[in-house]
Specification:
This protein is mainly β and about 160 residues long. The chain has helices at about 5-15, 60-65, 70-75; strands spanning about 20-25, 30-35, 45-50, 85, 90-95, 110, 115-125, 125-130, 135-140, 145-150, 155-160.
Amino acid sequence: MQLDHDQLHKLLALLGDSDIQELRLEGDDFRLEVRRNLPGSAPVAVMAPAPAVQTQPPAPAPAAAPPSPSAPPPAAAASRSDLVEITAPMVATFYRAPAPGEPNFVELGARIKVGQTICILEAMKLMNELEAEVSGEVVEILVENGTPVEFGQVLMRVKPA
């Protein structure tokens, strides 16, 4: 079985108009996997030679690699004993506001209360609101908007009330 570029393009266009979430197609000299996770998202195609089937699972690893450079911020966790550190409960992308163009959940010097949303952590296209577990004043915000964070990385420091 042969699959040229035009046929692949037509196949992806047809899949884009369908409800199919996953498709696997194998030929003598190739393997094609198409997956999409969210309705309305563009299909993603991965095409590899048949012997390279074992190399496809590491493909998501490069997407996880960018958080590695942010390893120094957790190491910079040396803090004053009078501050409470708010850490990331998961590997995710940190967002300070509910949507682009909207005001941030908290700013430096802001007073926060227990249960108040302080940021959003996006993991696997799910938006998770992180709520404060302590009341007090935000004295440090250590992560830039849209930055990947690691589990346990310090996001903010709060002076308890």
